Amino acid sequence: MKLVKRVIIIKRAFIIVLDSLGIGELPDAEKYGDSGSNTLKTLLDSSILDVPTLAEMGLFNIEGIDYIKKTNKPTAAYARMAERSNGKDTTVGHWEIMGLVSEKPFPTYPNGFPKDIIKEFEKQTGRKVLCNKPYSGTQVIKDYGLLHEKNGDLIVYTSSDSVFQIAAREDIIPVDLLYRYCNIARSILVGEHAVGRVIARPFIGNHPDYTRTANRHDFSVVPPENTALDYLKEAGYDVISVGKINDIFAGKGITKAIPTVSNADGMDKTIKIAKQDFNGLCFVNLVEFDSLYGHRNDVVGYVGALNEFDIRLKALKELLTNDDILIITADHGCDPATESTDHSREYTPMLVYGKSIKPFNLGTRDSFADIGKTILEIFGIDNELNGKSFLKEVLG
Hints:
This protein is α/β, with parallel strands linked by helices. The protein folds into two domains: 2-102 and 222-394, 3-Layer(aba) Sandwich (Alkaline Phosphatase, subunit A), CATH 3.40.720; 115-220, Phosphopentomutase (Alpha-Beta Plaits, 2-Layer Sandwich), CATH 3.30.70.1250. The protein has helices at 39-45, 52-57, 90-97, 115-125, 137-151, 175-188, 228-234, 245-248, 263-274, 288-294, 299-317, 370-378, 391-394, and strands spanning 2-3, 12-18, 77-81, 129-134, 154-158, 163-169, 197-206, 209-212, 217-220, 238-242, 256-258, 280-286, 324-329, 348-353, 361-365, 381-382. The strands form three sheets. An eight-stranded mixed beta sheet has the order 11-10-12-2-13-14-3-15, with helices on both faces. Strands 4, 5, 6, 7, 8 and 9 form a six-stranded mixed beta sheet that branches. The chain has a two-stranded antiparallel ribbon with strand order 1-16. Helix 6 (175-188) links the parallel strand 6 and strand 7. The protein is globular and about 65 Å long.
């Protein structure tokens, strides 16, 4: 790594990922079964979306969003982001944002995990496995919850994404023990079976009225190469993760991890960080757009969550100084109006805001990686990551 000698005009960078806020199908969406997906349009079609802060920044000025009135004077630079990685998963999306393009997709298991994987997992945990097939996360605990309660067997399921998910009731399998089982699964799922994430899915309640808790935890595969986070950390900058960012990168490149229990909690903690002094990156994921609303096909809930975010976004913007930059983006889509409950292969939005940033149409970018590339240029760090910096285009 090499530091470029130049004057740094930005001290603090904030990146907020609106998990699953896609803005229209990518050209290869058909290959993923996602033709016609458009998460943002679905929210707008509800007629109850109210996001004046995002609108004035230029969200609706982005290329391809031609179904709503644009603002004449956007306050941010804006772009449509295309994903180069093979996949539509949270992990590959976030990795690409930080400059790591995944050419090979993570393995998926439409017929469940191989018998030898399950057998080894049962051997190491000392517990039998229930389900072992793709399933809705809320439905699987309804269908297998009573069996789980009877014998303490683990509910293992997957989806169209590269995930090995383990559900258990918290008073039967304590959360710490469930995490230990997830670590066991993570150690087994290597090589050709290196799934993107092993996910702990604890729940509470009685059949059939179970509720998943905020003690979810993702055990991601470690990024195989350095990302922008590693470059920043090695150069001595702060890298503060808020929400599931630390999980997605398996802690790699993070200097401080702040967990959250909701979108609102994530934004409140981000606002608190904005009131503090640091030098580097604050990287935020707001997962409930995806986990509570996109995957549940809950249009009204999704709209309400985005409306609530917009209010907190206004409060965050008011705290930004001349030395700050704010980037808002997403990692994939999850259109709540389609029959599918899975992620969708979509373009994502990008808004770039700061007192030193000029409003500018950045067009359609070839890769999410342009964001990580730009962050490293901001902090004067030479690198060999994927992507093309847009810093010179947005500096006023």
